[in-house]
Amino acid sequence: MIAQNLNHIRAQIRQAALDYKRDPASILLLAVSKTRPAEDIVAAYQAGQRHFGESYCQEALKKQQELGAFNISWHFIGPIQSNKTKALAAHFDWIHSVDTLKIAQRLSEQRPSALAPLNVCLQVNISGEASKSGIALDELPQMCRLVAELPNLKLRGVMAIPAPREDFEQQREPYKVLYQAVAKLDNPELDTFSFGMTGDLKAAIAEGSTIVRIGTALFGARM
Ligand SMILES: *Cc1c(COP(=O)(O)O)cnc(C)c1O
Fold first, then answer.
1. What is the mean pLDDT of residues 67-85?
2. Which residue of 17, 73, 84, 208 shows the fewest CB atoms closer than 10 Å?
3. Distance CA 79, CA 90 (A)
4. Is 166 buried (19+), middle (13-18) or exposed (0-12) by CB count in 10 A?
5. Number of domains observed in the structure of the chain
6. Residue 130 pLDDT more than 60?
7. Which of 87-96, 126-135, 144-153, 158-167 has the lowest mean pLDDT?
8. Is the CB of 118 under 6 A from ligand 1?
9. What's the CATH number where 191 sits?
10. Does residue 153 carry a pLDDT above 70?
11. pLDDT for 166
12. Chain centroid to CA 13: how far?
């Protein structure tokens, strides 16, 4: 079932990319495995999936221990508490949800020196009410400047979780605004747009997504 879902999502990504004249290979599928048992991750892994996203630190660390033998790239996409930065810095390859300078500084200080710089995205609160997390759009230029200076982080781009919308054009709007704000910074290091979930995958790809974060369509509805 998971393998079938995965094939279906890959086909959707490919089709959306072609519809918007984009290279399908420029869009990474992140399998959001929060609340899912390690067996579900194994099933997706056996079907070729390598990038997995988790939202809760303790839960993720437990699964990482169970899955130590697998060559998985781990992405953290949830809210970050400062008492978790040490574990996050040591056990993840990517953090999508950086939204304060203090958290960024702690992640940089706590990144083990044996590891490559930690890939990070700044979470931007693009439609106000949707989520309490994320910097405001007008803070983006300064936050990019400050976070880019931190030695053990590699600032890659932005992440957004817009308010859910049914209408396709309304889904596109916040992503368009954020994409353009990043483009204006004219920084080639910012190559990552973590845009799109199960409900707005196509709209996100239409507006430049390079990482889509898919849970429900892959693993089924969360309990
Ligand atoms: C849970 C979650 C997802 C996946 O959402 P689905 O609608 O299940 O695809 C994506 N991004 C974040 C930040 C999440 O917390």
1. 97
2. 73
3. 17
4. exposed
5. 1
6. no
7. 126-135
8. no
9. 3.20.20.10
10. yes
11. 95
12. 16
CB of 16 closer than 6 angstroms to any ligand 1 atom: no
Angle (nearest 5°) at CA 195 between 164 and 45: 110
User: β-strand 118-123 against 211-214: which pairing, if any?
Assistant: unpaired
Q: Which of 164, 83, 80 is nearest to 120 (CA)?
A: 80
Mean pLDDT of the 82-94 span: 98
Q: Which domain range does residue 125 map to?
A: 2-219
Strands (E), the chain: 28-32, 51-54, 73-76, 94-98, 118-123, 153-159, 192-194, 211-214
Q: Write phi, then psi, for 32 (nearest 5 degrees).
A: -85, 105
The structure tokens listed for 172 are 């596109």
Q: Is 129 exposed, middle or buried (0-12, 13-18, 19+ CB in 10 A)?
A: exposed
